[in-house]
Amino acid sequence: MRRPVLAALGIAVLAIAAPAIALSATLQEYDVPRGSAPHDVAPAADGGVWYTAQRSGELGWLDPKTGRTKHIKLGEGSAPHGVIVDAKGAAWVTDSGLNAMVRVDGKSHEVKRHPLPQGYGYANMNTAAIDGRGLVWFTGQSGTIGWLDPKSGRLEAGGAPRGRGPYGIAATPKGEIWYVSLAGNHLAHIDSQTSAIAIYDPPTPNQGARRVWSDSKGRLWVSEWLSGQVSMYDPGAKAWRAWKAPGSDPKIYAVYVDERDHVWLSDWGANAMLRFQPETEKFESFPIPTRGSNVRQILGRKGEVWCPESGNDKILVIRTE
User: Looking at CB atoms within 10 Å, which of 1, 128, 204, 300 has the fewest?
Assistant: First the structure.
């Protein structure tokens, strides 16, 4: 276990007075071991926070109360990208270095690797989501879509319909799986029973769909890296809408929808986190205290929005309660 120096414990706290229409928010940064390059985060079942230490080939765990961290080696050549947590508290890691899905037990921290089929080729493993049956679906930017059955250990992988680009992936409240393709500029739905994939093109061409998240109504929110927009697809209405982020040159990387159905976005152009409220169609900007944060993914739990600062070896949390 490693404990950061209380350079204010490696923790910086910034309170922001938000506009009258919005809730207040407090930003807090935690230092993680130098050279970690935290890529993705996921709140852990024990109250901690998992993060993928991409450069060191480890899965990190942060104690928000003390700032202590622990790193777990994932294997020789590991370069972890995404991390999510299942109903049993286990962390699932998409590891592009190992070309495998990796499971880390939430209590024992035992590591179990599930490599792609021998001879499959390099998938460039990206992110994962769990469907209504408990299958772990994953994307690979080389053009891979696959799934793993945690009960049997069976893993299947195949080519995406438009080739390279599959990136962010998410599950709706009903357990349906959707993903976006960065290189392919589209949103796609996977039928988890048949593995059939249906593609839905956003209204803006060449928008660079990077990450996707579902709200409580099953609508899909997409962060558009190249257009600087957030877009929303409503499967029920079969309709798209899009909103341009504020600023002169927004670079919208990640998206996450919280328990209030507020849409959070990371804006690399402004080095800020944005909150978009669909009911008012207004953005709020929360500048990140440290420059060059490069927040690549967002996840949270009630009252907390967690963000990995891959450019600074820091983890940021925005508390909204």
Answer: 1
